[in-house]
């Protein structure tokens, strides 16, 4: 290894900050150095990115396969031959006894494009199962569905982040960017420095909301009413962009009529946002010459997330804030490869290139690339929660790669039980996650800095994460794992372990599809700071900005969707009088499997808590730090009280990063959005009690 720092990207969130890794003599062998030339973060990193090498250390990770040799026995160290044979045998036995759909596959939005592609192909070609889905279903599937419906194409942001400071007004809905993508906060700061305005919609006055010119704090689960109320006011005040609506859209009369049923006074009652604030929001948004609406998990992780995002899109369309420079709707995708992970076939209904599994032409194309009969490809399977819920029922074996649902799935105690009831569970992970600990076989895999691969950031920018050091002996890459399993299951060819070889095949598989990567090469990505898809052909420059001439629908027009408000799947009542919402803190990532192994991050965010307003605390007789029991129809979680005026008095907030008694997902409601099948992580009804402890 040379001493030169290797330019690469962070393993965690969808911002995919550029960083460089420099070799060191000490464990874990590399350190992070600034990579100021990468435009998205210009050297800035959050604490998670800065400390990411700590997880490369053999002190905290898996370094050899583990096998449970007898039911109920312990996980014991094993060689790779034994471990891979056990997985192949477990999957093959289930398929032989119960058919291919008894074998499930669960992937993750953190997996590189190459891995997501190979996992989808492995499920359809080697296992022949339709039962594959991934954790992105918990993340951005509602925004994806709304994008498809309105624009005919789903790419998180239709413009680069660098456009944000130059627009006139941003409405940021349910994103706590200051904690979830700290280096991106700079774009909002620059927006305001340039004279633009920022409106933040969040039931909590977050660090992000503190930056806003106007903060709207709706009751959780009411964003749909809020967006429709704003649209009502836009129409009532004559601020519709009639020419844009006429020339670039369809469906306005119906959408308009649906919105007009949402009178501001009614919207105030539903959302708790006063009418003058609604009017002020419309004024700020419509007075600016250009504007953007950006959503994240707040409005999306609802049982009506697709319609909610649809309502925000309608607002953009009615005001002409879409399909034009410096204007548009975008979703801030979450996971490291949340965008690419949803394009290449680990989703239940999907083939590579964002093709549909039900489309005969798509099946034909991909089957040709894969060298199989199109009729042999299974149809669409179940969504993530439905798949997890079916474990131990008709799905009896599971191969899981890149997710930790014991902590992150809604109604997690139930899902943990489903995982335990499987005939066979294999987990590939870098650490012994809470889910891996339940497995019959655990396969220790290489990490970001130890292998090369591409990710697609929230901007739709395809990036190259480069290998900077060797994995420990005893660890293999996910691609090599899939290669080995395919071989044992009779497919010696078609599952290369070399990432660039996989990417070359992915290019062909995606060619002509909505997410066309055919013009992207490793070499180009390295030379160009990433390439934006669609990129059909090596001479194509890539597409940083979408929809400027036409939308991706058949007629080129954006589609209004008539949506109306409906309540959350679970509302408060006498028994469960408080709303629970859940989310993140800056120093932990997701299920915490990785970041809970980093001392510096644990010191900053040591455990779960329940955020509540002083008025609610007083009513409950609760003081700062008291142990609180939060109880929902699904279960109970216990964590200390954190009292703050930054939250609505009718709502409590818990981060979801921890297992054990403080696991927020003991409480959450797996009510699914009918279109996206996204669970309602952001709202359920709870009771909050002071937990009486011994000696109290
Ligand atoms: N530190 C850190 N950063 C991360 C992650 C992490 O785990 N930790 N995960 C990454 C991933 S995968 C994702 S998806 C993103 C998520 O990024 P964000 O969406 O920013 O994160 P959340 O905290 O889940 O939710 C954002 C905000 O939604 C608000 N909210 C709750 N209910 C509602 C509601 O009903 N309406 C509205 N409008 N807002 C509501 C919450 O108060 C919260 O402040 O972060 C990415 N970055
Ligand atoms: N209550 C509540 N629950 C939520 C949410 C919420 O807001 N509230 N948000 C949801 C959202 S948006 C998301 S994205 C999910 C995320 O939740 P999870 O799907 O659990 O995500 P992670 O914790 O990132 O899990 C990734 C796992 O894969 C491992 N891993 C990392 N890289 C690799 C790799 O390259 N290969 C392999 N094989 N393994 C790897 C990690 O060590 C970790 O164990 O949580 C969802 N759950
Ligand atoms: S903001 Fe996201 S990509 Fe950037 S350093 Fe932090 S976790 Fe990594
Ligand atoms: Mo996510």
TrEMBL record:
GO terms for biological process: respiratory electron transport chain. The keyword DNA damage does not apply. Keywords: 4Fe-4S, Iron, Iron-sulfur, Metal-binding. GO terms for molecular function: 4 iron, 4 sulfur cluster binding; metal ion binding; molybdopterin cofactor binding; NADH dehydrogenase activity. GO terms for cellular component: membrane. Pfam families: Molybdop_Fe4S4 (PF04879), Molybdopterin (PF00384), Molydop_binding (PF01568). The keyword Electron transport does not apply. It comes from Streptomyces niveus (Streptomyces spheroides). This is Nitrite reductase. InterPro entries: Asp_de-COase-like_dom_sf, MoPterin_dinucl-bd_dom, Mopterin_OxRdtase, Mopterin_OxRdtase_4Fe-4S_dom, Prok_molybdopt-oxidoreductase. Signal peptide: none annotated. Residues 3-60 form the 4Fe-4S Mo/W bis-MGD-type domain. SMART domains: Molybdop_Fe4S4 (SM00926). It comes from the Bacteria.
